[in-house]
Specification:
The complex is a heterodimer. Chain A contains seven helices and 23 strands. Chain A is an alpha+beta fold. In chain A, the strands form five sheets. In chain A, strands 19-18-17-22-23-15-16-21-20 form a nine-stranded mixed beta sheet. A five-stranded antiparallel beta sheet of chain A has the order 1-3-8-5-6. The longest helix of chain A is centred in the N-terminal third of the chain and has 40 residues. The chains are: A alpha+beta, B mainly alpha.
């Protein structure tokens, strides 16, 4: 029997081992890939559309002490493409504006949408139309109205909100809007000062495509002029061989000269042509609208409220505010609501209007008083108001204790027996109570 | 580098060598196409950004100042490579054509189909006439200095007039909300951008209107001056990145 030489058997053994190792590696790789695929599949099955707009993300003290929204209403929630919907409401600009937030010298009343599924056709502040950003005054009261027109069918969660320069977005109460119909039916015609009606959806598109195509054609011709010849290696060799003169031919130079003359001539020719076609073209307009606040609606002087102390009871998720209330009206009043950061705490023993079609986050039984008796005309009383609900946590307002400016702000609503409403803006430092 | 070629010993490639060299040309071109579509477009989007995205940002001051200044960067770098090593005067046109392709793809798919903006609101500007002239100046002058001064200036000066045929019509005045606006402004008002409040627009701000209402030429000349410097800077960046050190034998 012929024996296998030692080195050959070692070789075979080594090869066998190498084969096994390779197979094991393949198995490991396969298992790893399967594991990743499982995780990915799990991830895919749990995917949900994003419905929020980051409204809870802004620090609580900014949400509570900047724009204080109330009475926000949508004219309707179901409509078709081309139909209009109006959102109206009021807001108070907090007097106790946070020191770390720039003053609202430039603010923009906006609508949170997933892209322009609606278009904004009109916008009013205190009854005055405005197209630009606006300067708001701390302590001022404003009402607003925004008219929107359905553009793309779908179901969308929409908020009015304020963009505050260098501060962020302060969301107002949101609502679900259902837009029906067909996107292809959407029209948006605008009349120019000259009386021409233009379709905003297509205006200037064909013209833009034409000019881009025109220059793209010339550029392509220039590129092809060079690309048709051998390029990199061939030219590199010739350059290294000192044959530079052969790389740029006299015809190339003539074309270069033509470009230097013709392209600028075309550019300025077309520019002049366009300038003559639109002689009344004006520069882009940019302005800061100045709209004065309404006469005081909040802190109007009838009911005066002073916050003596605020404590946030963390285990109970309850804010306790000691309020000194002076009723200057001629009727008895009751405290019916406390609103802060778009969360409303209602006193269920006081009948108060509740906006039905906005999604103000409401704690229907979230407000209680140590002394619920109506405050008589001329009476001054210190009341311990408790606004308690898990909403402090779920709306991330309890994060106040981690804020650099741990002060609360909000609106308290009083009602008299005739349903007359008095609103006061309150503010105070907050003391956390951990047990 | 061992390319010791001389005119006397030089022979053009023929047959298989020529075919492979040509295939290499196409390979590089295709790769360059994707590279510049991606990289230049990204660079442009991150720097020129909103001035090129939106019709209501294309003003007389910042748009003609910023766009050519950023637009000349990649063309200068690619010209440095293409001209220095291959005597190919197509670097600027190639870059800007790639930029145009990238921008149009983004405007149609990202802005229109994904985010529902009408395409006319996000029409890109064109730098192609400027790029053609820049390439021609380099070819005719064979000089970095002359191209930087005259080509760079022309690149900036041609920008605004070459785009006016596209965007002039958006500057027609309208009356809305008791105020005068352009159609471009109206796009910004009507088509809601949640992250783009009006006050963010950096338009018509600054002191470039010293000579009255002729802000656009002033901005263009300011940009021309800066473009000469930017061109030189990016030419050197292009040269720095371009290397033939891996080329052993051809």
């Amino acid at each position: 029997m012929k024996s296998i030489p030692q080195n050959t058997s070692t070789k075979i053994l080594t090869q066998t081992n190498a084969g096994r190792t390779k197979e094991m590696q393949h198995h490991k790789l396969l298992n790893g890939l399967l594991f990743l695929a499982m995780i990915f599949a799990l991830y895919i099955t749990t995917l949900q559309p994003v419905m929020a707009h980051g409204e809870k993300n802004l620090e609580p003290y900014v949400r509570m002490r900047t724009i204080q929204w109330y009475d926000v209403q949508w004219s309707r929630q179901k409509f078709n493409v081309n139909e209009e919907v109006t959102v109206t409401g009021k807001f108070h600009v907090a007097e106790d504006w946070p020191i770390s937030v720039p003053k609202p010298d430039a603010s923009f009343l906006n609508i949170s949408t997933p892209g322009p599924v609606l278009i904004r056709t009109e916008r009013y502040l205190n009854g005055k139309p405005f197209m630009n950003s606006v300067a708001l005054q701390p302590g001022g009261d404003y009402d607003f109205k925004v008219v929107l027109k359905g553009r793309l069918p779908g179901r969308y969660h929409i908020h009015p909100f304020f963009n505050l320069r260098d501060a962020g977005q302060v969301m107002g109460p949101g609502a679900w809007l259902d837009i029906g119909g067909d996107a292809a039916d959407f029209t948006n015609n605008i009349q120019t000062i000259n009386g021409e009606i233009v379709n905003m959806e297509t205006y200037g598109l064909g013209n833009g495509i034409f000019w881009h195509s025109f220059w793209a054609l010339l550029a392509t011709a220039w590129l092809l002029w060079w690309v048709r010849r051998p390029l990199f290696i061939a030219r590199y060799r010739m350059l290294k061989a000192g044959m530079e003169d052969e790389l740029i031919t006299p015809l190339d130079k003539n074309i270069g000269k033509a470009i230097l003359v013709v392209v600028p001539l075309l550019v300025f020719g077309f520019y002049t042509m366009t300038a003559n076609q639109y002689p009344k073209a004006i520069p882009l307009q940019t302005a800061l609208d100045q709209i004065l606040p309404l006469s005081a609606k909040v802190n109007a002087g009838v009911v005066e409220v002073e916050t003596l102390r605020s404590e946030y009871r963390i285990p109970e998720r309850a804010m306790k505010l000691s309020l000194n209330i002076k009723n200057g009206s001629d009727k008895a009043i009751q405290l019916g609501e406390f609103a802060t950061g778009s969360v409303r705490f209602l006193n269920k023993s006081v009948p108060a209007p509740v906006e039905l079609n906005t999604e103000s986050v409401i704690a229907a039984d979230g407000l209680s008083l140590d002394n619920p008796a109506p405050i008589q005309p001329g009476e001054q009383r210190t009341v311990l108001m408790t606004a308690g609900d898990a909403l402090w946590e779920s709306e991330k307002l309890d994060g106040l204790i981690n804020d650099p400016d741990s002060r609360i702000g909000g609106l308290v609503f009083f009602y008299d027996s005739d349903g007359e409403r008095y609103v006061s803006s309150i503010t105070s430092a907050v003391i956390p109570k951990f047990n | 580098m061992s390319s010791n070629l001389s005119t006397r010993t030089f022979r053009h490639y023929t047959g298989e060598k020529a075919r492979i060299a040509r295939a290499y040309d196409y390979l590089v071109l295709v790769l360059a196409l994707f590279l510049f579509i991606g990289s230049f477009h990204l660079h442009f989007a991150l720097t020129v950004g909103d001035w090129d995205f939106w019709v209501d940002w294309k003003d007389r001051q910042w748009w003609p100042l910023v766009t050519p200044l950023i637009g000349i960067t990649f063309p200068a770098a690619v010209q440095a490579v293409m001209w220095t090593h291959f005597r190919l005067p197509l670097g600027a046109t190639l870059c800007v054509a790639c930029l145009s392709i990238g921008t149009w793809i983004a405007r149609i798919f990202a802005y229109h189909y994904w985010n529902f903006f009408p395409i006319n609101m996000v029409l890109p500007s064109t730098l192609l006439p400027s790029a053609l002239v820049l390439d021609a100046v380099l070819m005719m002058s064979n000089s970095l200095t002359i191209t930087a001064i005259f080509g760079g200036s022309a690149f900036a000066l041609l920008f605004y007039p070459s785009n006016w045929p596209i965007f002039g019509m958006f500057h027609v005045p309208i009356e809305a909300g008791n105020s005068q606006m352009t159609l471009a402004d109206m796009f910004g008002f009507q088509y809601i951008r949640t992250g783009m409040p009006e006050y963010l627009r950096i338009i018509e701000r600054g002191t470039l209107r010293t000579y009255g209402q002729i802000a656009a030429p002033l901005a263009a000349f300011c940009s021309a001056l800066l473009c000469t410097l930017m061109y030189t800077l990016w030419w050197h960046i292009g040269k720095w990145f371009a290397t033939t050190r891996y080329l052993n034998k051809i």
